[in-house]
Specification:
By secondary structure, the chain is an all-alpha fold. It has one domain (2-685). It is 84% helix and 0% strand. It contains 22 helices and no strands. It has helices at 2-26, 33-70, 76-111, 115-148, 154-157, 159-195, 207-239, 241-245, 258-281, 291-319, 324-348, 353-361, 366-379, 382-412, 415-437, 442-489, 493-498, 505-546, 561-575, 577-594, 596-632, 642-685. α16 packs antiparallel against α21 (596-632). The longest helix is centred in the last third of the chain and has 48 residues, at 442-489. The radius of gyration is 24 Å and the shape is globular. It starts with a helix and ends in a 5-residue tail after the last helix.
Amino acid sequence: MVPILIAAISGVLGLMVAGFMAAYVLKQDEGSERVREISEAIKEGAVAFLGREYRILVVFVVVVAIILGVVPNLGWLLAVAFIFGAFSSGLAGYIGMHIAVRANRRTAAAAQKSLNQGLRVSFRGGAVMGMCVVSIGILGLSILYLVFNSHPDFLLIIPGYGFGASSVAIFARVGGGIFTKAADTGADIVGKVEQGIPEDDPRNAAVIADFVGDNVGDIAGMGADLFESYVDSIIATMTLGMVAVFSTVLGKELVPDEPTAWFLPMLVAAGGILASIIGIFLVRVGEKTEMGALLNALRRGTFSAAIFTAILSFLAVYFLKADIGIFWAILVGLVAGVLIGESTNFFTSYTYKPTLNIAESSQTGGATLITTGFANGLMSTVPPIILVVIAILVAYRFADIYGVAIAGIGMLSTLGIQDATDAYGPVADNAGGIVEMSDLPPEVRQRTDALDSLGNTTAATGKGFAIGSAGLTALALLLSYVLAYTKAARIELADFLANSSLLDPLVIAGIFLGVMLPAVFCAMTLNAVGKTSFSIINEVRRQFREIKGLLEGEEGVKPDYSKTVTICTTAAIKQMLAPGLMTIVSPVIVGVLLGPLALAGFLVGAIASGFILAVTFSNAGGSWDNAKKWIETGAYGGKGSNAHKAAVIGDTVGDPMKDTSGPSLNIMIKLMSIIALVIAPVLARFPGIL
């Protein structure tokens, strides 16, 4: 029980640090009356959206819990774990966004003093999200263990927690992504392209909705995404614990007993929380606004956290008397995560050649810029896939399939600081917009622009990190599903694998269906953004046309910001349902109709296809965004030039790819995998209708 208590204590410590960060942010200067007015409008819109979204999710969670409770071989304990997971995910997202919408005004005020103070306030605002995700996640799993560990079906109950977290995440990510990108696209097309007015100009009716979207999509949505990655990776490793007791592949014991196999991932995660806390306090910067200096400030924190995590992971392996091969599996996952983040940075930051080439192509128009950017997105898939493959092979060599699962935990172990660097971006972006709308001095806007540009890079790096971890976690869940099915069906794993030929028509059918689903999911989410953007664009045009003196900037004339927020909220809530429900229902239909073998092939196809599309979409969108940022520094004619107009088009095309469809695929492949794990006992009784 000592390791579980250590894990729980680390979760409590993480929440205390989150509380300290929140208190620090809230006691900072809130700025002028105009700054507070704008920030309050953003907060009201974000809270209203989250309230409507959560009310719908409560109904969904209750309905699914009832279904889980009445289905044979599942039961009410699984339903309780499902509700607990959904509540924990929603709570983490709400707390993180609650602080973020209050940190933006304080960051704007802090940037008037110095760049370092602006970074400190915005980063600590984002750190609340990061620490809440890991702390609530590990506390929730610790509570479940303490309550249910003596139950004979413990390993069939605990996946319900991940199912609940993933279910909330898919709707939060899709709904928030539709909101933020529809508002952003509408604001950019009418404002910067058609009217030629600056970004975040207060005359634009969509700017407040854009700021609201940053919070509901890139903070609450991303937080839910990473929360379910975190808990799913731990659950997958715990489910594979019996493999670690004696590995037939390696011919030796990897851990002394099965409880040790459950404790180890919890201890590794606990060490990651402690390391992330240290890393967060190491982030500071001077007054240089160069991207390199700002990136180095964040790298100091993330790299330090990775080093401390490696040391603490070794101590966990040693303390539990586990085989040293498990440590090497953890280490390879940790290193792969860091390298995937750096790879994403290379392909999306304007300090490197790929994004500079995209910016250069803007000189000949939007078509060449989009072609170059999409090619960059496709090429960027090479490093993360190779790194994940190496991590899988090395981890399997040292610790069997248990090693593959725990490598995913190694990759996610520094999530506390990784999510902090990601959530920091929207806070800085909001602050820059508030500065623009408040007519603060140009040097303040210069500082917030530097923080915003860094936020674009860290957001892209965070998405790359999330995608890489999603691939390993989904694979671990796939392995857990196979193991859970064979156990429930009372057949030997070797016999199941021997009958699972890749040439089996059921496997091939499952693979093709799995490959198809991420493409359909992307089409649905992109269309949702397109439809909502259409409504926003027409509303902004209407206000420019009908509100006299608005475009001319006459004193006292303001756009109707609440109208665009309402349009985005209504459309995003409506459009998020179909992709989310399709993700949840698809593995159930495939499993029930075609059987467990086809479902395994389905997951293989979905994981592979989803991984490729997620990397491509996220990195293409990130590089288009930063190519625009580079041009806005003065390159190729700067703001208002033909090159800039082409770059804005590329940015608006890439926005829904990098902030809606791409990140949502991370959740999609994990959610389908954990649903398969949850329904494995049912499939053991009903092996396929067709």
